Sequence to fold (238 residues):
Amino acid sequence: MDNASYVTLTRMSGLRRELQVVANNIANATTTGFRREGTVFSEFVVGAGRNEPSLSMALGNTRQTYQIQGGFAQTNGTFDMAIEGEGFFQLETAQGLRLTRAGMFTPNHASELVNSDGHRLLDAGGAPIFVPPDAREISMARDGTLSADGQPFAQVGLVRPVDPTTMSRAAGTLFVVDGPTEPVETQGILQGFLEESNVNPILEMTRLIEVQRAYERGHKLLESEDERIRNVIQTLGR
Fold:
């Protein structure tokens, strides 16, 4: 295989991964709190010998998450919460602390607030939030303070990573931070709302078509190179 084929294959490999990312974005266009992803391409230069020019290949192994605010959908749910501005909810999972923007919670059998996967929501002090089972009305202030019949009983904690580059996607709408976090002081939480996905389906469909066409062009180039090499071999073999 010649150099042109190697370069084209590295580009096609990155485009294949980008297709997977874009398809996942489209699939989660209606997922509460989902954050759009993108693929970051970089140049990988390989030396081909003392008397040969180096090869410049394309790598698409890095994913970037876009933390742009999504729209708000009003649900009027007592334990539905949407973050306005920066910050993430803290969830206690079997794999450790996870962050999320998906604010759909409900009390479990122990009257603790959990998400749809059963992960417990944590308060500002890092403890699970217990909802008084005999409360007739639950209200929440914009700073995350929860009150039962007018009496405060907990405050939802919002945090963010000290270094944004240490945060990566764990699964779905969950993120893991490989480093310290800090509380968000200017927090704003809306009760009875959910933050929608920040994916724009039209833009993603457009990008999907562009990537598919680029992949097809690379495939045609490989076929042309293969045909050229085959013709050269046949001509020299006569």
Remarks:
- Residues 19 and 208 are 7 Å apart (CA to CA).
- The helical segments are 3-27, 201-236.
- Residues 3-67+199-236 form one domain.
